[in-house]
Amino acid sequence: MAARTDAELVLGGTAARFDRTGARLFGRERESDAIDRGLRDPDGPRLVLVRGERGVGRSAFTRAAAERLRAEGITVLGVDCVPGDGERPLLLALRLVMALEEHRSGAARRRSARQAAVEALSAVQRGDRAALAEVVVGALTQPTPATVVVEDAQHADAESLALLGEADLRRVPPGTRLMVTALQHTGPDRTEPSSESGRALAQLAGNRAAHTIVLPRLGPKDVTAAVAERLRATPDAGLARRAHRLSHGIPGALDALLVQWADRDEIRVVDRQAFLALGAPVPVLPDGDRYVEALRALGEPCWTVAAALSILWPLGRPAEEWVAASTELSAEAVHDGIRTLVDEGVVDELPGQGGGAVRGWTFRVPLMAHALRERLGPLERGRLSAAAVEALWAGGAPEDPPGRQDLRPPPVAAILAEADAKTYLPDRIADAGVLVDRERAVTELTTAARALYPDHERRGMVRWHLRAVRLIEEPIARDLAILRCGQAAFGCGDYRTARAAAGRIVFDPAEGLDPLALYEAATLLVASAGIERDWPALDRMGTAAWWDGLRLPAMAAVSGRVQALWQLEKWQEALTLLSQTEPVWQSTPDSRALLELFLNVAEFVLGRPDRLTRALALPEVPGLSRDKVFARSVAQLDLLLGIGDLRGATSLLSARELTPELLPESSRFLLHHLQGQWDEALALARRLMVNGGVLTAVPTHHLLPARTAAVLLAQGRTTSADRLVSSVRGRVSGPLEHFLDHAAAEVRRTLGDLGRAEETLRRGLRAAQERGSVYGTDELWASLAEVHVAAGHTGRAAACLERLDLLAEQMNSGRTRLLYLLTSGRLRPDSAAAGKHLAEAVELARSRSQPFETAVTLLAAVRANAGPATLLREAYELFGETGAALWRFHTRSAMREAGVVVPGRKQATAENDHLLGILLAEGLTNRQISHVLRLSEDAVANRLSRLFARTGMLSRTEVVSAVLTGSPLTPDSR
Known about the structure:
This protein has about 950 residues and is mainly alpha-helical.
């Protein structure tokens, strides 16, 4: 069995599938134990009333309890109540009698059933509740035990419920029980049910033989577990948090949310992890949804009041008056409508401090508020939003009469905690548009957008900028607002909007627009095209002719053209243009800082690192804005991380007073990778791939997928690594692919395919040579040398080693020097020079403080007899810390060969089994596994046989299933 998406880590992942089959109950352990104890206890309650709000899972809970009873041989009978039953007095009582009597055993069954039915009907016709109660109790006391499940008793007639509430159910024998489910809208702050059926249910709960179980909402942990089961993948923290917030922990709302997201392909699964796509909107519940239908059934004015509250509820108590003012409903109609919405569980009352007067209302299910808001037309939403804006700006109720200060809405900073105080007012301003003061609206929208930057969750920043643009009439001010919008969009990953905004200014700028703004628009346009991998557009932007027809200052045209050449890896052309136009780009601090960075990087990539080395030692350029200082520092940091200089990167962070938490996710990935924190690195990689951030900036362009593939390969996930590299190459082909060539070649080498590995490495070296690139070729030469050593071509390997030696001297890079030393030791393992080189390699690796790199070096030194065998223990621990399972396996083999005791025999066996399971899940044949583990095919077959014997599993399919579901490969795992 070949692994599916669970063993893949591919660009964008796969679409999530919502699965209800075999759904377990989460967060119901205590209630399940309580109902099981009660139903099995001879002295326990004869009636168990299961209550809870709409969607909380009453039916699923009682069905699960009923199935457990059936499994014990107990008969379970069902009686369902439906809307309309309440209009037929004593119907439920009659149906209970019929169900129980039909269940009677023995020859008298039919006769007794007819007799009980006649007696019950007669009592119903006479309205004799006492007689009917006797018939009901008599039916319950039959000798054949059974449990009767009454579903949705809120629809039942009040007379039957009252009858059951008054009946002496203590006479019912232990074998017969009633299990009743009913909707319960009243919250903890409301104890008095308002409807007749509600009062009858309260009376039923008060029966001395009854016990009530109220199902609560799920907490965050249970929501996370439920999402994992529904999606068959572990949810990312962001997805779990948002699911809990929008559903309020109500299972029915949670399922509705997940179904909508899954149907719209908003949830992606990568490496058995589920992620919500960047900027995924809150879905709108369809007309057939239970919550929408329940509100529709209430009719008017409830629907109109609820729709208005979906906009106005965060105003608190004044929302009631604003609803009346905005909908032209009477104050009495609005008051009654809100009262009904509370009684029917659509909204909840928010009690005041110390149990005082109600301070407002909130929707019980946030998804419902969104569904109502989205169903409003633009005019309705604009009018209601304008009312909210005016209320918050004015700080008072519509007329704010004397003595009504208690109705005054809170200031913006104190909006009800249940609302999002950062987004509520700007969202309302954006919806109100021209219905509120334009100037103030633009100011507040811009201020709110800046405060939310960079808005990675896309909560509204770009939308507010766009709305502000629509409200600005003066051309220059509008263009500046468009530029701010584009820059904000770029910062939160909305590159399409960023490019459109930049293009609008570049192609048709307002007369008199500041040259610096045009420069920033040009650089934003090229940067967005680069992030979108639009190589044809960048090719055009790299020519002078493309810029000649535009009304741009020379500084903007030069900067944009250089940046396009830089994105295309046309380093020498970029350097020539920079040399020819130096007076132009040196004219402002912004252009000078940016293009000097381009100059330094271009020379570094071409093998001239001195200028960049000096620049890294200098303080930041004065006169730059904070965001540009930050962007420049991140670019320098990524380059250091790309060449494996962890110490240099750490020093830069310290000098620039930056913490890892402030860095972009792609930079944090590279940092975690070098630090050996691979779990954290993979978590970031998954999220970046789902959200389209698979590529970092030039020249570290393909490092994220290349380094991720390296991690997967070190874990033994060869197929996953290969698919990742292939998917990136197939979708985003372009410059700097030699990083991907190195990763692909390592996969081929691990699988024993030396011919394809050599071919791939030479392709990468040719591509780099065509562009004059030196950056990143050290890894290609080192791998090519090892391929030649494995193939027995020592002369070719020596030629590669010479190139590595020259590179190490030319680039003055610790990484390149270490690669040269390790390659030299492997080429001539028994020579004195190898011993000297590997000893130096160990010292250099330790000074670089990178766990995986250090462990690889220690293992190489011992294998070449250049270090004591005790170093293997240290390498073994370091491989364990990073999670490099395949390297840890090879180190165990080396330890046994060297006579070094492997610690934890039981753990070692478990790790061997798990690695073997991973290789099977990757779809490898025995021959491929033998290459990966460096064993004979017979040895692999023996290991598989022992694995099956230890675990009790009978086939590869069972092992793969256990690996993909995360089950341990232990003797009892079957």
